[in-house]
Write a structure and sequence with these properties.
globular; alpha/beta; DNA polymerase, domain 1; 2 domains; 7-stranded mixed β-sheet; Rossmann fold
Length: 326
């Protein structure tokens, strides 16, 4: 029995339920002959639905960093034999250059389904969940980069506390960081999910009802290891450059940090911006129109509790940037 309860046995292979499936694809306003991007293929729920809406001349390019997602995509391609579909082993942050290599310079819609997928959470060896005892990995792309254990083994106390505070919004970030470093200096660096969850349970003095004390720390480390917020900002910028006039951007986020970035990006690009350092210069033109926010229905939340925090934000590229010189 650990301080945070016993680790669970490994589950059966996860069945991924795509969140806001119909709402997200409907938000893209699919043109049958258009070109579209699914920035996070996952297990292909959104991609399959987009392909159903596309005509024979349509085109869908998907992205994913996870080799297991690419394997799932290969199975789809083999089974469907669909020449309209291809997938890139890359972050959506690189969609601009990846599409350019294929000769695609404008698309009619881009969908980003952020965060971690159910198969990633429910596969113990991926190290995303404190529910199972496993190596503390957390990489979405398991072919490269340092793991969460590597980060905790090398970062100093201030950096660990900063990550847990900023990315996990954890008010006990400093005590957790101190405990991590003290354990490391004793010659027992944290290498597993259970070791980390037990340490956090001892450091976090109060718990939110219904939430494991390790929840915020695990979220923070996952975001750090995968550079999720930096890649989101880069991906949104690339999406704006790639969207054709009247093209749609649809983004599903699952926590406040992601949603804040998306909300602020759409708001910033949906108004004229005056450079106060150059008051005589023309204002930066509006390039987007915000089309609204969608939450999962009560029925979807009952069927898939993991959808309860999802927010879908939708925007459209203006046909002519408003406020720009004629």
């Amino acid at each position: 029995m650990s301080a945070s309860g016993p680790a669970e046995a490994a589950p059966e292979p996860a069945h991924h339920v795509t969140v806001l499936l119909e709402e997200a694809v409907r938000a893209l306003s699919i043109q049958p002959d258009g070109a579209y991007v699914d920035g996070t293929f996952g297990r292909g729920g959104h991609s399959r639905r987009i392909l159903r809406a596309l005509g024979p001349k349509g085109h869908l390019v998907a992205f994913d960093k996870d080799p297991e997602a690419l394997a799932a995509a290969a199975e789809v391609g083999t089974r469907v034999g669909d020449p309209r579909f291809c997938i890139c082993h890359a972050s959506f942050a690189r969609m601009r250059e990846c599409l350019a290599e294929q000769g695609v310079h404008a698309v009619q819609g881009i969908l980003l389904d952020l965060g971690v997928s159910s198969p990633q959470i429910d596969t113990p060896q991926r190290g995303f969940s404190f529910r199972f005892d496993a190596p503390l990995d957390m990489r979405m792309d398991t072919t490269c980069g340092p793991t969460a254990a590597d980060f905790l083994a090398s970062a100093d106390e201030q950096r660990i506390a900063q990550v847990i505070r900023d990315y996990g919004e954890e008010r006990f970030a400093l005590p957790i960081a101190k405990a991590v470093v003290a354990r490391r200096e004793s010659g027992r660096a944290i290498r597993t999910t259970l070791e980390l969850s037990e340490l956090v349970a001892r450091a976090v003095k109060t718990r939110e009802p219904g939430q494991d004390p390790a929840t915020r720390t695990f979220q923070a480390l996952r975001i750090q290891v995968n550079a999720e917020l930096e890649e989101l900002e880069q991906g949104l910028s690339a999406a704006l450059d790639l969207l054709a006039p009247e093209g749609r951007l649809a983004v599903i986020s699952f926590h406040s940090l992601e949603d804040r970035i998306v909300k602020q990006f759409i708001a910033r690009e949906s108004r004229e911006v005056v450079d106060r350092r150059a008051l005589l210069a023309p204002p930066k033109a509006m390039r987007l129109q915000a089309l609204g926010r969608i939450r999962p229905s009560e029925e979807e939340v009952r069927a898939n509790p993991r959808s309860r925090s999802a927010i879908l934000r939708v925007a459209q590229r203006l046909a002519t940037p408003q406020g720009s010189p004629a």
